[in-house]
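Morning run. Coffee first, then this:
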Amino acid sequence: MNNNLQIGNLGEIEIIKLIEEQVLKKTGKELLRDDSFFFDLKGIDTEDSIVLNSDMLVSTTDVPPIMNSYQIGRKSVVMNVSDLLVKGVKPRGLIMSLGLPITFKKKEFIDLMNGIIDYSKKFDLDYIGGDINETNELIINPTVFGFKKPSAMIYRKGIKVGDVLVANNKFGLTGVGFDILLNIDGVLNNFQNYERSIRSVLEPNISGIEAMILSERRLATSSIDSSDGLFKSLQDLILSNPNLGFEIYFNEDLIDPEAIKYCIDSKISLEEFVFNGGEEFIHLFTLDPKDFDKAKNEIQSKNGQIFRIGKVISKENIFIVKGGKRKQITGYGFEHFNKKA
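And here it is:
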């Protein structure tokens, strides 16, 4: 069949058949056609709770124009898996609902499904099934789930004054990447020195090593995924832990060197990119300071990483320490339905 055909020329039955063919081809598993979906609980501890996350991807707000269909599918899984991993939960299954415009090409759809399935396989996720519908724009609504004892999960609430704030990666790359992809009129060849920044937007990577270790060893007092930006994530932690705040060290442990170089070259605010970048999928944790060295050593032994980027204070504000000076910051972070965002 012609891969240039539009989804509107295929029909729902043919689209479902395409999904089934791609899943079988890549995983060796046949999808179950039924009114509901089933997941075998063999090997699941009866004391475990089911942990779910569903983050919707909408093409007009979540997809840069240059992002291809494979990358879109991949990102839809990344953004959901990250929220489970940061809690110390291993994702086990995926249900995927798709809203497809009738102008979507068959080849684009196959690439989209390959991105979804490939990144599901990366985390050993079972693709169970889902739903499809006709929409004006591409909408992907995954539900990812896993299992964990409630006592072993890392929640947002539980922070104490004096805890250290750590991250499993450095900030600023996606701020640079989005600035290049969305705001600069030019070809990507002009930005070869910022390939990592561009790639961080088009093909974000995530790690669950750090959260799994911190969860198993009961070393973290809180955790959060930073996909809405560092500042917004810190605000969310404050909402869950009233009367506490953060002091952030504005240095090389916090900021990726590629972001520093770009901001110097472009004469752009580095603070903006670090605190308002978003979609970085970096995991933030708080730890008792006496546990930091132990956590760092064990994480590094498993090829993970954490960086000490700040500490918890007793005032409900966010400060940065830069060049020996301390100042309060406000007004960063992405928020849906906010015209100022």
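The chain has two domains: 7-150, 164-328. Good start to the day.
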